[in-house]
């Protein structure tokens, strides 16, 4: 399946894209996405271990399965305020 | 009241939203753009958000605060885009019957907002360099990115 993941702040700058697409084998988890992101975007790799991920605007863990058509976001450490 | 806005935040408007005869305490916290971080000088900050999730998380935090403290009113605003020195980046206003719970709720809200809401700031330094602020990480192009508030 094709998995789309939005990226923000330094993650977006390092990947060079605000949204990336990865072809992933099913079933896939967020942990799988984390590994593939690091492999597909070497410049982003140092930041990948520090990303949180969200599906449909809720934080998820590496064990969370990726549903079809999921709205996924890679969230670097936040700095609002 | 929860709002992400590119327009300047008016603290008086927040106070008006939370003021009530049922409240004996009104607390307002403002986060503002600070010039110096250690020995580095900031020219401006640029904020971005994952807006749908930021709005959802802010609503969840306000709901949790309401469940934990007897809030009469609660308003949170966060500015996005480019901010000059001294401008208000975030505002939290709460009103409660008594001051102790107003201080506790306001402190919890701003602390938790800074930990979980997907909003980021970029330092634009006086030397022209820029750094995204990602707490716990070295900035990509320098090691001096730190929390402005």
Summarize the structure in words.
The complex is a heterodimer of chains A (81) and B (149). With 81 residues, chain A is of the alpha+beta class. The model of chain A has no long low-confidence stretch (mean pLDDT 97). Chain A has helices at residues 9-15, 30-40, and strands at residues 2-7, 19-23, 52-55, 58-60, 72-75. Chain A has 2 helices and 5 strands, in the order E-H-E-H-E-E-E. Helix content of chain A is 22%, strand content 27%. In chain B, a hairpin with a 2-residue loop joins strand 3 and strand 4 (40-49). The radius of gyration of chain B is 16 Å and the shape is elongated. The A-B interface holds A 6, 8-10, 13-14, 47, 50, 54, 57-59, 73, 75-81 and B 31, 47-50, 52-54, 56-57, 78, 89-90, 110, 113-122, 132-137, 139-140, 147, 149.
Categorize the overall geometry of chain B.
elongated
Order of helices and strands of chain B: EHEEEHEEEHEE
Structural class of chain A: alpha+beta
Counting DSSP H or I runs of 4 or more residues, the number of helices of chain B is: 3
Characterize the overall form of chain A. globular
Q: Find the biggest chain interface.
A: A-B, 20 and 34 residues
């Amino acid at each position: 399946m094709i998995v789309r993941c939005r990226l923000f702040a330094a993650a977006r700058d390092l990947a060079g894209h605000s949204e990336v697409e990865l072809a992933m084998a099913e079933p896939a988890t967020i942990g799988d996405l984390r590994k593939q992101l690091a492999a597909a975007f070497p410049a982003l790799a140092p930041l990948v271990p520090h990303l949180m991920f969200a599906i449909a605007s809720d934080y998820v863990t590496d064990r969370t399965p990726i549903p079809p058509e999921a709205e996924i976001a890679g969230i670097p450490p936040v700095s609002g305020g | 009241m929860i709002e992400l806005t590119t327009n300047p935040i008016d603290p008086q408007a927040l106070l008006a939203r939370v003021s009530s005869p049922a409240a004996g305490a009104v607390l307002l916290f403002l986060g503002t753009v600070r010039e110096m971080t250690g020995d580095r000088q900031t020219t401006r900050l640029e904020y971005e958000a994952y807006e749908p999730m930021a709005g959802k998380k802010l609503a969840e935090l306000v709901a949790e605060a309401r469940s934990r403290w007897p809030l009469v009113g609660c308003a949170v605003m966060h500015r996005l885009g480019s901010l000059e020195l001294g401008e208000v980046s975030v505002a939290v206003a709460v009103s409660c019957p008594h001051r102790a719970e107003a201080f506790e709720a306001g402190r919890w809200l701003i602390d938790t907002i800074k930990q979980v809401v997907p909003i980021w700031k970029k330092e634009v330094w006086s030397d022209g360099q820029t750094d995204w602020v990602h707490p716990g990480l070295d900035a990509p192009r320098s090691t001096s990115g730190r929390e402005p508030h």
